[in-house]
Amino acid sequence: MTTKPATDPAATNREAPQSALARSFPRYEQTFPTLTDAEIGRMRRFGEVHHYKDGELLFETGKVGPGMFVILSGHVAITQRDGMGHVTPVIDQGPGQFLAEIGQLSGRRALVNGAAEGDVETLLIAPPDLRALLVAEADLGERIMRALILRRVALIQAGVGGPVLIGSPSLGGVVRLQGFLSRNGVPHHVLDPAADTDAADLIARYSPSPADLPLVVAPDGTVLRNPSEVDLAYAMGMIGGPIRDKLYDVAVVGGGPAGLATAVYAASEGLSVAVLDARHFGGQAGASARIENYLGFPTGISGQALAGRAYNQAQKFGADMMIPVEAKSLDCSKSDGVFGLTTECGHFLKAKSIVVASGARYRRPTIENLDTFEGRGVWYWASPIEGRLCAQQEVVLVGGGNSAGQAAVFLSSHASKVRMMIRSGGLADSMSRYLIDRIMATPNIELMIHTEIVGLEGPDDGGLERVRWRNRKSGVEAEGEIRNVFLFVGADPATAWLADCGVTLDRTGFVLTGAQCGRPVSALETSVPGVFAVGDVRAGSVKRVGGAIGEGAQVVAALHGFLGDKPA
Questions:
Q1: 444 partner at 20 to 30 Å CA-CA among 53, 283, 353, 494?
Q2: Least confident among 407-416, 468-477, 509-518
């Protein structure tokens, strides 16, 4: 991959032989821009000059990256190395180009290798200084930020970097882990042992039992047998050692629209922010296939795309994103003057204030054998992964809210038929008009009112095969060969972790905010001073993405008021 040096950086970029993968990247010029000497000069105050010999690694797959490299002279070969020992060229970069992707904003592990080709001189900008650069140099920062995001998108689309999942694409464990990685923006790829010899050999070596599937091969070669999401996150470095010995101005529990908005506005105004979420950024909104009534997006935007932009934006301003990390309990005694958050993975975090944005958890209807088929035909979201599973099949979707409507429309483009079941007599009370019209106009969506599922059937060692349902008015039952059921039947507030803190909840478990017991407070402050609540978890919230984002912005003013009253 070595190329002849050129005096013109732009010419170097054009002449460097790139892999087919690199040439296939969309928006190539924006993904791999070449900086001018003047632009590099503006960046020098943020970094330090480093030199590398031929063959020396600047960064290595699976190890924490030191930051962003700006190449001053020489060339660097970027290659993919997966945990199975395969090495694939990605791109060759030369003078005037920079090496990084969005993970370097927060010092995450590298997804690819970068090796010097000949002697190389670089300007190395560490993650904190990179964030400072993006803010201080607005126009240059915009170009760099766009490139960092596009590179991660390209890696995801190409399946470059990240773990290898080994198992049938229809296997419940594969679908579960694919969904987890996809919704956290982590590149990965799946190898089907039925079609890949290396995958079949690895299963023969490591997997004596079907319960061990899928196997997951981490970039460092570690093999995991059917891991939990948390175990996979540890192996990937998404979560790791103890939380830094740091006192935060605010800890936000929940990474949905309300929590992300809080993080963006608070961090951009100079507050130190930690964000925890038990599974992935975006919350339930992140699972929406298309949101068409969010301000400023007349053609609609997926919940994943909207949440992903906010997630990157929060990191740009320095918020520490801790995902997947679940809050276990909140200590409001303030024995040392601050709040204490204990997490399920055993960490302890201190903060001067708390924002409860934990949203709600998917509600599980009372259906016999439901737990048997969760992840094996019963799903609580509808992403492209599930869409591929039910291609040209008949599916059942239960629910009548906006999330259910968005999912039904999305699935109708994959499934042969979508049976949309609701217990009530219509959609008008729970769904936006535009979605009702869309559903009524979609020929392969059948709306079944006054209907509920009463039975799920399938082999003990297999997936769902048959569903029975009943008309609640007539009592008539029917059944069909259905292999995929999607449940969107509402959600219950995720507030169990507040049990010992003294925060007042309403009778259904939502957090009460505003004036209580005669104490004048912010409309978003709870019964415990310094603890605020925003988004779906708050009693009386409008349960819309726009409302959640608005509350996330609004609460920052209240945070400033609370923190400003505290002695220095």
A1: 283
A2: 509-518
CA pair distance 543, 257, nearest whole angstrom: 11
Q: Is 62:111 a contact under the CB 8 Å cutoff?
A: no
Under DSSP, the state recorded for 210 is G
C-alpha distance across the termini of the chain, in Å? 57
Mean pLDDT of 150-173: 88
pLDDT digits (tens, 9 = 90+) for 263-280: 999 999 999 999 999 999
φ, ψ of residue 48 to 5 degrees: the values are -130, 145
DSSP 496: G
Contact (CB, 8 A) for 455 and 368: yes
State the pLDDT at residue 24: 57
- CA 409-412-413 angle, to 5 degrees, is 105
- pLDDT band at 50, cuts 50/70/90? very high
Interhelix angle 138-158/303-316, rounded to 10 degrees, is 130
> Domains of the chain (ranges plus CATH)?
9-158 (2.60.120.10), 164-236 (3.40.30.10), 247-361+492-564 (3.50.50.60), 370-489 (3.50.50.60)
C-alpha to C-alpha distance for 157 and 276, rounded to whole angstroms: 27
In the chain, the amino acid numbered 397 is L
Annotate 252-316 with DSSP letters as a single string.
EE--SHHHHHHHHHHHHTT--EEEE-SS-TTGGGGG-S-B-SSTT-TT-B-HHHHHHHHHHHHHH
Residue with the two structure tokens 């936006």: 432
Residue 203 pLDDT greater than 50, yes or no: yes
- Per-residue pLDDT at 208: 73
Average pLDDT for the chain: 90
Q: Per the omega criterion (within 30 degrees of 0), is the bond before 324 cis? A: yes
- Look up tokens 């773990």; give the residue: 163
> How far, in Å, CA of 153 to CA of 48, rounded?
28
Residue 471 structure tokens:
């008309």
Which tokens hold the place of 227? 């891991």
* pLDDT tens for each residue of 36-45: 999 999 999 9
Q: Which residues have a Cβ under 8 Å from the Cβ of 337 and sit 6 or more positions away?
A: none
Residue 250: which of 567, 568, 558 has the closest Cα? 558
Q: How confident is the model at residue 4 (pLDDT cuts 50, 70, 90)?
A: very low
